[in-house]
Amino acid sequence: MSDYSLIAGVDEAGRGPWFGSVFAAAVILDPLKPIAGLGDSKVLSEKKRNYLFEQIQLHALSWCIAEASAEEIDQYNILQATFLAMQRAVDGLLIQPEAVLVDGNRCPDLTMPCEAIVKGDSKVAQISAASILAKVARDNVMVACHNQYPQYAFHLHKGYGTKQHMAELEQFGVLPEHRKSFAPIKKLLKEGI
Fold it and tell me: 7-136 architecture in CATH?
């Protein structure tokens, strides 16, 4: 990949949760404007992620955040929906990259060369930047979902399968944005909750 100068990093956020879209971001960094502090979004503090989220949007050559809905996750499965979100993120870049580096062990179907890098979000700056954009964007949507559905603590558990989320489901039922193909939700629907 060192032969290419315009390389986009791609990562996702939200493959595991029971609720909402899976997000992906694609980022082409500007070599003349390096961003200090990039790293795996999961190990950065929320404050640091939010700061870097703004820095990436200000200084990257091009960036795009995309998603695949809970409905698409149920229709295609989580892996294919993740790839769909990644394709949308790459397609949404205003500058077409020459190559793409993706966090993980598999690449989505793209029109340019693509390489998957395991733990790429902690090894490659472009992927770190993409991981931060995807995670912060998804977290922001989860906070908005809490405002829409205040009985669910989406601002805290972010739609992941926590005890609290399960208790909320049992008390208040399944929402339209829940992933109905995921086993715990499927089981609740079968039980008529």
Answer: 2-Layer Sandwich (3.30)
